[in-house]
C-alpha cells in the first residue's frame, strides 16, 4: 500500500517517532541514505509542485532530494497544465509513471486527496490551506533537540488559530503526546472537526488540547511558544483587518514572561516582526527558529525515505 503524508495524523505516534529518529540520523550523516539513486525504484526524479510561493520548502526539498541521490523537478505556479488545462487526476496519472514521489504545495486539501487517490507513489503535502505537516516534523525535531523529549511538554500557539499551522500544531503536537494550547480571537479558532480529531488522537497518546481566547491562559508555564503570520497566503486582501484583530496575541516579552523560564520559541517563517512576534523575541536567546528552518531539510529527507520504504519502493532503513 502506498503511504502518503497529507495531514499530520497520517503518521501514528510510533511512526512519527521513527521519522524523527531518522531525521536525527540524517542530520548527523547527511548522505546516509540514497533511495533515489538506488536500483530499487529506477526513478531518480521527484516532482515538487508549487501553487503558492516558497523559500524554505522549495530549497529544503530541492537540497534534500539531491542529498538522497535524486533529481528535484521544481514546477512553479502556472508552469504546468495542472489546475487550468488538466485535472489533478489526469496530471497525477502521468506523473506517477515517471517520478518517485510527488510533493505539492497548494490551496485545497481536496486536491491533495485526489492526487493521492490516483498515485502509486507517495504524495506529500508541502502546505495546503488546511495543514503544513512537513513544517511540524521540523518543529517537533527542533523541540526534541532542545528539550530532549516531546511527550508531556506543553506547547502554546498564539494568533490565527484557524490556519494551517494551528491545525498542524494541534494534530502533530498531540500525536507526539504533547499538551497543545491554542489562543486566538473568536471567529479565528480551529474548526471543531480539527479539535475533535486532535482530541481523539490525544486520547491515544496522553496529550491534550486546549482552545481559548485568552493568550495568558495558553502561554502560562508553556515549554514551547509558537506563532505564525496573521495573514496567510491567499488572505492578503484581509491584511489590515487581521492585523487589528490579532493585536493582543503577539508573542512578545510580556507573553514570554508568563511561559516557562527555559521556554523555546518557534516560528515557521517568514516572520513579520512587530505583528505576530516582536523583534526582540524572534531574534532573542529563546528563539530556535533558525534550527527549525534547517530542520526542514533533515525532517523531509527522513519523511521521503520513510514513505518510500513503507510503500514497498525501497528497503526499510535503520535510523541509527
Ligand atoms: N515555513 C515555510 O514553509 O516557508 P516557505 O513558505 O518559505 O516555504
Ligand atoms: N500560514 C502561513 C504559513 C507559511 C509557511 C501561510 O499559509 O501562508
From TrEMBL:
Q: Which SUPFAM superfamilies match?
A: Aspartate/ornithine carbamoyltransferase
Q: TM spans, by residue? A: none
Q: Which residues bind carbamoyl phosphate?
A: 54-57, 81, 105, 132-135, 268-269, 296
Q: Where does L-ornithine bind?
A: 164, 228, 232-233
Asked if the record carries the keyword Transferase, the reply is: yes
The reaction(s) catalysed by this protein are: carbamoyl phosphate + L-ornithine = L-citrulline + phosphate + H(+)
User: Can you name one GO molecular function term for this protein?
Assistant: ornithine carbamoyltransferase activity
| Highest taxon listed in the record's lineage | Bacteria
Task: Specify the Aspartate/ornithine carbamoyltransferase Asp/Orn-binding domain's residue ranges.
Answer: 152-307
Q: Which NCBIfam families match?
A: orni_carb_tr, PRK00779.1
Q: What is this protein called?
A: Ornithine carbamoyltransferase
What species was this sequence derived from? Answer: Arthrobacter jinronghuae
